[in-house]
Amino acid sequence: xxxxxxxxxxxxxxxxxxxxxxxxxxxxxxxxxxxxxxxxxxxxxxxxxxxxxxxxxxxxxxxxxxxxxxxxxxxxxxxxxxxxxxxxxxxxxxxxxxxxxxxxxxxxxxxxxxxxxxxxxxxxxxxxxxxxxxxxxxxxxxxxxxxxxxxxxxxxxxxxxxxxxxxxxxxxxxxxxxxxxxxxxxxxxxxxxxxxxxxxxxxxxxxxxxxxxxxxxxxxxxxxxxxxxxxxxxxxxxxxxxxxxxxxxxxxxxxxxxxxxxxxxxxxxxxxxxxxxxxxxxxxxxxxxxxxxxxxxxxxxxxxxxxxxxxxxxxxxxxxxxxxxxxxxxxxxxxxxxxxxxxxxxxxxxxxxxxxxxxxxxxxxxxxxxxxxxxxxxxxxxxxx
Length: 385
Known about the structure:
Layout: H1 2-25, H2 37-41, H3 51-76, H4 78-100, H5 110-132, H6 134-137, H7 143-147, H8 149-163, H9 172-177, H10 190-210, H11 215-232, H12 240-258, H13 261-281, H14 299-303, H15 309-329, H16 334-351, H17 363-378
């Protein structure tokens, strides 16, 4: 088991490091810099940036620190593993920032190095804290979080989607203004309400996996966190359609939880497939001329930074992770569930090549495949069953 865990950590570390380097240096258009290399180093500074960018840089290196600590703890011990992981993360980040000096579409900054280092250290501490308390947690209400991390990740991803970039504001006027949409009309449409209702029903099934017998309480707590965040975080408002979707999900939660697991997962997976197809292909105005299918993952997100990138990534991780996870819970083994889920997503992306205004690429199918890999690695106790 120890060897298996070590191999898992090594593979995860390799994948995470590759994704960090890929995401940080894409599109790999390197060019020389004027002057000596020492002069180029002076361009690295603690530049000011947005709070969302700071959060993204910390979150990006959390899994790196966790994987490094997981891999090094057995050899170095807890404290040295954290120190070594932090140093490796800082070195990787600094090396990437140096490379960005020669990448024409990137801005190198020591602020990124600092945030990445903090993220690495935090990830290492979190990983070792979980490991050190794992035995005690097995008998506690949090035991399901350790046994079913993929189901937990679905909850976190949806909450992250609704609250990213997690920027609180201490302004009572803003807090009051967040209630203004509740007095507006025009939101009582199925297209506005049902996606929220479906998401919370999926999360109810995930919560039952994590906290058996306490799913409704867990989901209710998550709903309250989302509502509080949309009041307290900048740039966010309460959405009546979201609140209506929450109410519908709570009303149907008992019925869904009484169904056999396989049947509930099958119904929710089918509904999610329909939703993904509708959202991906709307307004269905297909054209005869086919556009290109981009084979470079994350190309648009990496070349066109927007404030919506982080919540969009949370939504993608939730949507395709939930699809594959539900298919696995419906009775399929992980491999067929992954193939079916990725196939559905790929079909939608392929059809988008005939839709003007849509960008079809390989990113979403790869996320579905990655979700299947995580299920296979972390829920090998028959999570599909």
